[in-house]
Amino acid sequence: MSDFPPVPLTLEGSSALHQFFRFDWKQWRSCADGERKKIADEFVAVLKKLERANADAPVRSALYSQLGHKGDLVLIHFRDSLEALNQVELDIAQTPFYDFLEQHHSYVSVVELGLYESSRKTYEAASARGFAEHSPEWDAEIAESLKRGADAMAPRLFPAVPEAKYLCFYPMDRKRGEGVNWYKVPFAERQRMMHEHGMIGRRYGDQVKQIITGSIGFDDWEWGVDLFADDPVVFKKLIYEMRFDEVSAVYALFGRFYIGVRLPVEKLSGWLEGKL
Predict the structure, then answer these.
(1) Whether residue 170 lies in the annotated active site
(2) Cα dihedral angle (126, 132, 133, 136), rounded to 10 degrees?
(3) CA–CA distance from 69 to each of 3, 28, 108, 225 (Å)?
(4) Per-residue pLDDT tens over the stretch 148-163
(5) Are 171 and 107 in contact (CB under 8 A)?
(6) Is the pLDDT assigned to residue 1 strictly greater than 70?
(7) Among the options 107, 116, 166, 170, which is catalytic?
(8) What CA–CA distance (Å, rounded) separates 251 from 173?
(9) According to the model, what pLDDT value does residue 276 have?
(10) How far, in Å, are 8, 19, 113, 150 from residue 146 at the CA level?
(11) What are the residues facing 226 on neighbouring strands?
(12) What is the 3-state secondary structure (H, E, C) of 151-212?
């Protein structure tokens, strides 16, 4: 594979935004009961519009009650463009409820499917037809392959937020230091390792829904990982097992982990009274 481009092909879909908030409980309690209800009801109405375009549409924004000291609320949004995500931010910022929120972290990315397996086949097919690398003919062959893949993978590229009860989110990188550098490993070796890595995830497919988003050039890490499940312990089991996998054990760097419990929008008022 040394004669082919080192970069695997990828498919991109929905733009994604994660927002992490702390809630000012002291300021909230200082408001009169009637004012609190008015502010909460208005925010719930805005969130319901953001949640889905209509009653039959897929969920595109979801709210979570966050565990631990890192924050109180998490919002996840999937949209068709960065402009649409920016509009979501602006819509939320216009609400009086936003005055009680401190956004201490966010993550911007785009749903990504890595194509190590099909990249190799596509490159080999283009080469077999005698196309020079990055020639117009080569680029057309690649574009056609990506179009076929995008059509076939549309549900995964433009996902709804899963209805699972629990969320685990974390960012990650591949190491690129002097001693260990993922980006210097030959394509075939990376392909092998990613295949073995993916087989672990597939074994958990009936318990965990995974959405990978690419953030190179968008945020401080290279990828964001969302895991959704009805049993939070499966997050621990899956990630622990993957730590023994070569691609994680040798080449992975992980950021902070965030855990949340799905908070249906209509239950926000109860959350504000200390009830899930």
Answers:
(1) yes
(2) -90
(3) 50, 19, 22, 21
(4) 999 999 999 999 999 9
(5) yes
(6) no
(7) 170
(8) 8
(9) 86
(10) 12, 31, 11, 6
(11) 169, 211
(12) HHCHHHHCCCCCCCCEEEEEEEEECECCCCEHHHCCHHHHHHHHHHHHHHHHHCCCCCEEEE
User: What is the chain's alpha carbon radius of gyration, rounded to the nearest angstrom?
Assistant: 21
Structure tokens at 216: 């190179």
pTM of this structure: 0.94
Dist. CA 66–CA 48, nearest whole Å: 19
Instruction: State mean pLDDT over 203-215.
Output: 96
Place of tokens 């009274």: 273
Report the alpha-carbon angle 245-247-249, nearest 5.
60
Asked if residue 27 lies in contact with residue 100, where contact means CB atoms within 8 angstroms, the answer is yes
End-to-end CA distance of the chain: 54
In the chain the domains, ranked by start, together with CATH numbers, are 14-111+262-271 (3.30.70.1030)
Predicted confidence (pLDDT) per residue in 101-111, tens digit: 999 999 999 99
